[in-house]
Every structure is written in C-alpha cells, then in structure tokens.
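[stage:ingest] chain + small molecule (pantoate)
[stage:ingest] validated
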Amino acid sequence: MPEVVTTVAELRQAIARLRPARIGMVPTMGALHAGHVSLVTAAREQCDHVVVSIFVNPTQFAPNEDFDAYPRTLEADLARLGEMAAIVFAPTAREMYPDGFATTITVGGPSAGLETDFRPHFFAGVATVVAKLLLAASPDIAVFGEKDYQQLLVVRRLARDLALPARIIGAPTLREPDGLALSSRNAYLSPPQRQIAGRLNVILKEAIIRARQGNLWAAEDAATRALLDSGFDSVDYVAIRDAESLAEIHDRRRPMRILAAAKIGKTRLIDNMAV
Ligand code: PAF
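[stage:predict] done
[stage:export] tokens:
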C-alpha cells in the first residue's frame, strides 16, 4: 500500500527519502478507475516511484456543479493503487487553500473557448491546483490523460510558462468495449443513459471520416445533430481544432483534433480524438 501523506511538508519529506530516484506524479481527484491506473503505469514506465495526488479540487467546480456529489473513495483508491504508487498525497482543502488564500493562476492560449465557454472558472482552478501540486512534489514528470485534452494543453502551457519543475506527459484515453472513454462521472449514468453515452465516440469517429472528406463545419454540425438524435439532452460543443493550439483551423495540413462535450441528464461527458 502507498504511504499516505496529507501535508505539503510530509509530501516533501517522503519524496526526499526516495531521491535521487526518478519520481513521476499523477494528479487525480480520486474515484480511481482503470484510466487512472493507465496513467500510473505510464509514469512507472519512465520513473522509479510514483506519487498520486487525490484531491477533489473545489476551485475547479462552479456552485451549480457536482463538487458535493463527486465520488470520494480513498480506501478503495489506495487498494486499487496497491504497490503501484509509493506515495499518495491526499490533502485537505485547508492544506491546499489556507486561510486568506488569494492567488489564482490564469492561463491564456489553449484555455480559450471550448470548456471555458461553458465552465469559465475551470482552468483557473485546475492551473492553480496543478501548479501547487507540482511545486509541492517537484516530480521529474507528471502524467495527464488525453481524455481531458484541453486540460492537458493548458497544463503544458502552464508548466512551460512558469518553468514548473516537471515534464508534462500526455497518456492515451482508455475506453470501455463500446468505446466510451473511462471517466469517474460515468458512474452517474443510469443503464439507459449509459447506452446513449456509448454513442459519443462512435459519432466522433463518423465526424472524423466526414471531416476528412470535406467541410469541417458540416462534420461538426452533423455530429451535433447525431448526438441529439441519439438521446443526448444537450450538446455544448463539437469542434475540430488545431491539435497543438486548439485554434480554429486555417491550415488543414496541420494536426487536427475533434473535441466534444454533451450532457445526458445532469451528467456532462467529454471526449476527443485525433482527426
Ligand atoms: O483531471 C483531473 O482529475 C483534475 O482536473 C486535476 C488535473 C487532478 C486537477 O484537479
């Protein structure tokens, strides 16, 4: 079982005891599933020891979002990690945001649009907590899932701009047999909703074929309609963007990425793929 530490001071001491070994970090909000395990595995491939942080970060949730409902399963998470992680950092909100906390990091560039149009608070919350986690642990690498593709690009930008002490590694999305991207929020879906959710990745693949054949906007539009026809209650966006900057496409020879967010009932699902 990993050593569990709850303060930044304990985390630094625990990591110092492991040095000079190479340390990888996997920041998470817990409710660990096979997707998180694959991030830990990716970190282990490049490092001697892995630190997993488990912290449901309040600043990346808006008041109307699922902060209270977000699953908190520390004991099961520790059991799942077993020997794969040397240290779990599970701080309290007070440890991460001490009284009088007054610092927020705002990242520009890839945070513009998409998630920000619908969750304007989100990337400032993520950037602030990720900067704190990386500064606390100073790992050699930190692994983030491509499932949250815009987040991955924002974290890369953040780490470069602030020269944070970690190389940022993106790891591929893990999927269920029907292609649904693994996510802690899939647990909110009822069986009929879960069936509908499985259509998201299929519709994105169809949109990729359409996009390669012709008009990008028509591909996005057809995918939006297909999601609504499949039973999604609303579609926040389906967008084909530059894979490195998330800017609108001006040059189709550059790598492109299709990204989508849609809701079934109260559950908001996101997914993305290379075009
Ligand atoms: O992707 C997540 O689980 C979270 O956004 C992160 C990166 C752990 C920050 O709270």
